[in-house]
């Protein structure tokens, strides 16, 4: 179960894993997957959660736990499914590594009352307690499930990268900013379909320079991004009095494509002379304009985009968190310190 910062909805992915615990070699097959779109009410509650007082935040934590439980219960019932367990990322409200905490909505004990199998959640907190970033966690699963792919990119609310050797980090803001600009351009527009608005705009060099010069890009790995940083550092640069929405979106697309392409080039194996493959998943994979300009930048460095089925594009994050939940139940490490920078690999996740 996955809910991302772009607020598209709740991703549910019923998956069969096949593997050998002794060799740690795994494969998967997605049996059934669906996205339950958030209502406008839930979008408003989730996007506004960062501003709640303590009591109201706890109440939302519990109510969202009920929502997740009821939604998963209905998915199981309607599909006549028989899950061995359910794992959920929760919905991130705070991710403040400098203060040593992260918080995802969805109270685990509350969700578990709707299930007849173990429920695993809260995958990030232990890593932060051990000095890690607590993010990104998807590369910790990609190393097992997509081991034949050189580079994995997930273009969600935040764009992140995962490498064949298991390392990874958050690259830059992505859909969370595109979607915000689309909604400001046209009321109730959830996203810029195919990047059409961006394609009509012009790059504004001064804005592009400001985006490219943000301090985050000077940090060394491990590193991760949260909505708080994006709200404080990126949103104020996007001034509708100074730029048109089309120009802001075109400039943002250039910025995102530049940062992702550079991350891929920096991560390209130095021993590999032939072409390197990149798998792109997440909602941004459907932004045709963004993918076009990204592809052009990657081709200059003999990096090609791997053809990927739509189900994997949409549900890879939910798939990976199911796998992290499996590893938690098996007592196997599921958060890797070479990604997050913590003092040790850990078996993370609270089991309910």
Describe this structure in words.
By secondary structure, the chain is an alpha/beta fold. The chain folds into two domains: 2-134 and 343-351, ATPase, nucleotide binding domain (Nucleotidyltransferase, domain 5), CATH 3.30.420; 150-305, 2-Layer Sandwich (Nucleotidyltransferase, domain 5), CATH 3.30.420. The chain contains 13 helices and 13 strands. The chain is globular, with a radius of gyration of 20 Å.
Under CATH, the topology of the largest domain can be stated as Nucleotidyltransferase, domain 5
Number of strands: 13
β-strand percent reads 15-25%
Please state the overall shape, judged from the principal axes of the Cα atoms: globular
Oligomer: single chain
List unreliable stretches of 5+ residues.
none
Distance between the termini: 15 Å
Q: Domain count, please report it.
A: 2
Largest sheet: 5 strands, mixed
Relative helix content: 40-55%
* Widest sheet, order of strands: 10-9-8-11-12
Please give the CATH class of the largest domain.
Alpha Beta
Going by CATH, the architecture of the largest domain would be 2-Layer Sandwich
Give me the secondary-structure category.
alpha/beta
CATH homology superfamily of the largest domain: ATPase, nucleotide binding domain
| Helical segment count | 13
InterPro entries: Anhydro_N_Ac-Mur_kinase, ATPase_NBD
Protein name: Anhydro-N-acetylmuramic acid kinase
Organism: Lottia gigantea
GO molecular function, one term: ATP binding
